[in-house]
Amino acid sequence: MRRCIEIAKNGLGTSAPNPMVGAVIVNGERIIGEGFTSPYGGPHAEVNAIQSVKEGSLLSSSTLYVTLEPCSHFGKTPPCADLIVNSRIPKVVVGLMDPNPKVAGKGIQRLRDSECQVTVGVLETECREHHKRFLTFHEKKRPLIILKWAMTADGFIAPESKKRTQAPQPYWITNPSSRQLVHQWRSEEQAILVGTNTVLQDNPRLDIRQWTGKNPMRVILDQDLKIDGNFHVLDGNIPTLVLTAIADSSKYINGINYELLDFSKEIAPQICDVLHRYEINSVLIEGGTQTLTTFIKAGLWDEARVFTGKSRFTKGIEGPSLKATLLNSIRIDTDILNLYGND
C-alpha cells in the first residue's frame, strides 16, 4: 500500500477532479503490475495497473492493492470494479472507501458480490492524508484550501504604496529557490486565487513558468471589475474565473468566466460554494492580506505555507495574523518556510 501511495503522487496536478489513485498487483512475493490515475478523462489507476501486467494468466492468482475504493459507475471511463471482476482477480486490498455518493461502498459491494475477497482500511490514515483534496471536496463540500504568503523579517508582505510609486520595481521578499517552489505548488493544485489589489499592484501571471506541468485555473476576486484586459490575469491564456458583484455582462471580457457574489455577506463560504460547483478540489490562495484574512477569520482553510525572508521594508502592508499549529519549519537557503495546519 505504501508503494501504491508513492506511485499515486504521479497524478498530482493532472488527475483532478478525479482522485490521484495508485494501484499495485502482487503475485506471490512479486509485483507484476502498477498504475496510477491518468490525466483527467484518461484511464484510472486500476486499469493502468491491469494493462501493465505482461502475463495476464497470473491475474487469477494475484492481489490488487489500491489506495481508494474502485469506482462502480460509468463516468468518462467504465467502472473499475467491473474490470477487476472480469479480470478474475480474487483478492483486493483497499486503503479507504470512496466518499463520492456515486461510489460510497458500491464498488466494494460489487467485488464481494462476485466472490472477490476484499480487505478495507489498510494504511487508512496515510491514504486519507494522500487523498486529502478529494476527501475535503466530497466530505466538506469545498476545495482543500491552502494559504500562502511571504513576509519580510519585520513582518510586511509588501512595501508601502509610496515606495512602489517612487521606485517601481519587483520587491522580492523570498529567494529564487522559494519562488520556484511556489511555482511547483501551483502545478499541484487545481486553482489559484488572489484579490483585486494584488493584481493591480503586482500584475501577476499566476502561472507555472518556473516549473513544468499544468497551470491552475486563475480565480480573481474583483468586486467592482477594476481589473481591465491589460492585466496578465485576463489575457485568456489560462482558464480564468472572476468573482464579482457586477451583473452587467457588457463589462465582461470574452473567454473569461464570471460568477456573482453578494459582497454584503461573508464571501469566503460563497467562494467555496462556487469552486465546489466548478469541481475544484483544491485552491492555493496567494493573497493579499485582506483576502487571506477573510479565509482565516472564517476558519475556511486547511494548510498555511508562510515564508519569511531576510529583507526588511520598515514600512508597508503587514502580513495576516495567524494563530495555528506549527507543523514544520524548513530552511530554504536564506528563507524560512513555516507550515501550519488548521485544527
From TrEMBL:
The active site is at E46 (proton donor). Residues 1-111 form the CMP/dCMP-type deaminase domain. Binds 1 zinc ion. Substrate binds at R186, L206, R209, E286. GO terms for biological process: riboflavin biosynthetic process. It holds the Pfam family dCMP_cyt_deam_1. The keyword Oxidoreductase applies. GO terms for molecular function: 5-amino-6-(5-phosphoribosylamino)uracil reductase activity; diaminohydroxyphosphoribosylaminopyrimidine deaminase activity; zinc ion binding. The keyword Acyltransferase does not apply. It comes from the Bacteria. NADP(+) binds at A150, W172, T198, D202. This is Riboflavin biosynthesis protein RibD. It comes from Pelagihabitans pacificus. The gene is ribD.
